């Protein structure tokens, strides 16, 4: 049963949020949407409501999304076996076709349609549109196939959409350059969000994940580190506090901060309205990373 609030309580909540709304008005916030928040109908609705509310109060909101489970499901349907190298999906041409179809087609348009259905205005894009994300094939000891490293972000189209009052919904497929000129390249969605946030001069980058944030003890959910400075991330790595899947998340936050983003946040997408709790309350949620 939903908790009932008196009119006075509701008014108090709005008044307490007012300074934050005023502070973020006309500023850009980039949200990376993924994990459980994309799987549960209740959480999906909460995220969409949060994003629409942000846009309604004048926050220039960019939504970058993943879609790993959907890609995995489609690969299974086609009998294609998934292969991962150091946590990154090996992407041959057949897999890239499926990634592009699922991310740029099904997932991207479903999110845009949900925003429209709930009273917002959204435009679904991928990094190829307007040459927004240009990338070269990732180099290294391990061959990852058509996995790219972003070399350039062109925010012209993005700025135009934000100026119109709409919410850009972006899937992380990039336009290939060099030897892969014109090919689609698969980009990690966290990295795409960080690069876009830096290029557009975002006030905040918000990464949604399936844990509370950075934990001092990975086995203890109550050991949340609420705030940490950018330079402390290296110490947390050395001490083994940052490990496994949290390392690339922290690296993306560092990348965004190094690119000029004011603050980065790793928040628990399993909590309904986690974005609003982070933005509009004194307590916040998750881990805030400062320059």
Q: Can you characterise this structure?
A:
The chain is built from 9 helices and 14 strands. The protein is of the alpha/beta class and 291 residues long. Helix 3 crosses helix 4 and helix 6 (189-200) packs parallel to helix 8 (246-258). The strands form 3 sheets. It has an 8-stranded mixed sheet with strand order 5-8-2-1-11-13-14-12, sandwiched between helices. Strands 7-6-9-10 form a 4-stranded mixed sheet. The chain has helices at residues 7-24, 41-56, 68-77, 93-117, 156-163, 189-200, 232-238, 246-258, 274-280, and strands at 28-33, 60-65, 84-85, 88-89, 122-126, 133-137, 148-153, 167-171, 173-176, 184-186, 204-209, 227-229, 263-268, 287-290. The mean pLDDT is 91. The chain has a single domain (26-280), classed as Acetylglutamate kinase-like (Carbamate kinase, 3-Layer(aba) Sandwich), CATH 3.40.1160.10. Helices cover 40% and strands 22% of the residues. The longest helix has 25 residues, at 93-117. A hairpin with a 7-residue loop joins strand 9 (173-176) and strand 10 (184-186).
Report a brief summary of the structure.
The protein is an alpha/beta fold and 291 residues long. Helix content is 40%, strand content 22%. The strands form three sheets. An eight-stranded mixed beta sheet has the order 5-8-2-1-11-13-14-12, with helices on both faces. A four-stranded mixed beta sheet has the order 7-6-9-10. A two-stranded antiparallel ribbon has the order 3-4.
């Amino acid at each position: 049963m939903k908790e009932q609030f008196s009119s006075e309580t509701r008014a108090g909540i709005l008044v307490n949020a007012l300074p934050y709304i005023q502070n973020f008005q006309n500023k850009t916030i980039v949200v990376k949407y993924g994990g459980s928040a994309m799987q549960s109908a209740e959480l999906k609705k909460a995220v969409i409501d949060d994003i629409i509310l942000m846009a309604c109060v004048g926050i220039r909101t960019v939504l970058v999304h993943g879609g790993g489970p959907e890609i995995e499901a489609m690969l299974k349907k086609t009998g294609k076996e998934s292969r991962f190298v150091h946590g990154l999906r090996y992407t041959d041409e057949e897999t890239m076709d499926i990634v592009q179809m699922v991310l740029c087609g099904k997932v991207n348009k479903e999110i845009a349609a949900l925003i429209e259905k709930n009273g917002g205005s959204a435009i679904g894009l991928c990094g190829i549109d307007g040459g927004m994300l240009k990338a070269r094939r990732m180099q290294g000891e391990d061959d990852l196939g058509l996995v790219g490293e972003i070399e350039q972000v062109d925010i012209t189209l993005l700025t135009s959409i934000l100026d119109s009052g709409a919410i850009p919904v972006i899937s992380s497929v990039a336009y290939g350059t060099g030897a892969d000129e014109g090919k689609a390249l698969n980009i990690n969605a966290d990295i795409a969000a960080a690069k876009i946030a830096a290029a557009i001069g975002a006030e905040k980058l918000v990464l949604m994940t399936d844990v509370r944030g950075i934990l001092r003890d990975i086995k203890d959910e109550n050991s949340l580190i609420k705030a940490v400075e950018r330079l402390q991330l290296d110490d947390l790595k050395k001490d083994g506090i940052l490990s496994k899947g949290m390392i690339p998340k922290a690296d993306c936050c560092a990348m965004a901060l190094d690119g000029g983003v004011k603050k980065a946040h790793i928040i628990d997408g399993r909590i309904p309205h986690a974005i609003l709790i982070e933005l509009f309350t004194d307590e916040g949620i998750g881990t805030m990373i400062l320059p």
